[in-house]
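ok new one. same drill as before - structure tokens go in, u give me an amino acid for every spot. 212 of them this time. try not to just spam alanines like last time pls lmao
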């Protein structure tokens, strides 16, 4: 019997000692910083402000628009649909291509931010822990999902997929493994970036209850 073990995570944020003042330098660092840094700067708001909906833009878009005043480029970076990417490097490439095209038109090459407004690249180390919650069937899954923390929900929906390069979120993968393919498909179709985590919890519970 396949048992789902709920996990949770703790993030330790760290500075990489890298700061940039303009678009060319930002692009150079986006190409080479660790994947954990790209993840942090695209998911920081989701982790820290899970009650906001819709989520604020990624850090790159926010800095480009506010520190450099390049609203057009900022909008393009903000429009990157993070949920479409299963791998960090694919997400990295998406930002790189947008900035490269912007630079190829000779835009923003000489624009630098004011002193003190530099972009500081950050990263985070993730520590994953087991919880006391587990499920052997749909009924137990609903009970556990009602009780787990926001950090646990975040880990199984967002972090395990993108950070570990999985093809889907942990819930969908488990339901598929126990023969609940229709249920797995319904959860996989959810866009977790457009609602708060608590709303996401309720939506998943409602979907699972229909199959109980």
């Amino acid at each position: 019997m396949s048992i789902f073990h709920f996990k949770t995570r703790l993030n330790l944020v760290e500075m990489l000692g890298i700061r940039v003042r303009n678009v060319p330098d930002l692009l150079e660092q986006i190409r080479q910083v660790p994947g954990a840094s790209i993840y942090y700067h695209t998911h920081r708001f989701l982790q820290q402000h899970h009650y906001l909906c819709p989520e604020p833009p990624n850090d790159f878009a926010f800095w480009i628009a506010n520190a450099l005043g390049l609203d057009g480029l900022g909008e393009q970076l903000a429009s990157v649909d993070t949920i479409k990417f299963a791998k960090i490097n694919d997400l990295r490439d998406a930002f790189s291509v947008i900035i490269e095209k912007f630079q190829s038109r000779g835009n923003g090459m000489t624009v630098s931010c004011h002193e003190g407004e530099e972009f500081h690249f950050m990263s985070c180390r993730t520590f994953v822990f087991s919880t006391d919650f587990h499920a052997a069937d749909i009924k137990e899954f609903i009970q556990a999902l009602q009780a787990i923390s926001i950090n646990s929900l975040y880990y199984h929906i967002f972090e395990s997929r993108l950070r570990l390069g999985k093809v889907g979120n942990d819930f969908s993968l488990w339901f598929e493994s126990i023969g609940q393919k229709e249920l797995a498909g319904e959860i996989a179709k959810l866009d977790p970036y457009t609602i708060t985590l608590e709303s996401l919890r309720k939506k998943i519970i409602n979907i699972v209850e229909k199959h109980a």
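The longest strand covers residues 4-20. and btw The radius of gyration is 19 Å.
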